[in-house]
Specification:
This protein is an alpha/beta fold. It has a single domain, classed as NAD(P)-binding Rossmann-like Domain (Rossmann fold). Helix content is 40%, strand content 14%. A 7-stranded mixed beta sheet has the order 3-2-1-4-5-7-6, with helices on both faces. It starts with a helix and ends with a helix.
Length: 216
């Protein structure tokens, strides 16, 4: 039976609340695609996915949906696989973030890999964002953590985000998913065991937040 084991884990009442949840996922690459898959398969299917990119052969080692879809718009291909999602094919910019209405969403899942829009999104909507670093250059998923951005280390991408936020006067309590593993290469080499684990961690954090919210 569909969702049978999800219901056994969380209970029917909680599962029903999962189905009422509304999420928006920004970025559906190596990290975001795995978060989408895990959440959708858990019964959270009211998800808006936003990305502007198309699949390339270099995506095939780490991005769900890439096989058989080279050259296609990512969100269009993913909507075929996950039919209940709303797909928005657009480049995420600070201007788009200002214009888009996020108010109806329970959480904003931030898998953006561009610094400026990521920083802008955190500044504007930090209270309901679940944000993640990228998974490139690493091989050990056990080093992935979810903690205060001000306490992160060994993650050059998050360090840039942290620096930008400081320069803009942002001092709020804010947690991120990052890796404490030192990067092992200079170029953006990647291993699905890590990029996928970042996405699964994002899905897990989302579920835990929802469970805590239901208790209140």
């Amino acid at each position: 039976m569909k969702y049978d084991r999800t219901k056994k884990l969380f209970g029917v009442e909680t599962f029903n609340k999962f189905q009422e949840t509304k999420l928006i996922l920004l970025g559906v690459g190596g990290v975001g695609s795995f978060a989408l898959d895990a959440l959708y398969n858990t019964g959270i299917t009211n998800i808006t996915i936003v990305d502007f990119d198309t699949y390339e052969e270099s995506n095939m080692n780490r991005q769900l949906g890439s096989v058989g879809n080279i050259g296609r718009v990512k969100v269009d291909a993913l909507k075929e696989k996950y039919p209940n999602v709303r797909a928005i094919n657009i480049k995420i910019t600070p201007e788009w973030i200002d214009e888009f209405d996020f108010s109806s969403y329970d959480y904003i899942l931030d898998a953006i890999d561009d610094i400026k829009p990521k920083v802008h999104l955190i500044q504007r909507h930090y209270k309901k964002i679940i944000t993640t670093s990228g998974g490139a250059k690493r091989i050990d998923p056990s080093k992935i953590e979810y903690k205060s951005i001000w306490d992160t280390y060994n993650d050059p991408f998050i360090r840039k985000i942290r620096t930008e936020l400081k320069q803009k006067g942002f001092k709020k309590k804010f947690k991120v998913i990052f890796s404490s593993e030192n990067p092992i290469c200079i170029e953006k080499g990647s291993f699905e065991g890590v990029t996928g684990s970042f996405g699964l961690m994002m899905a897990s954090v989302t579920i835990q937040k929802l469970l805590n919210k239901m208790k209140k």
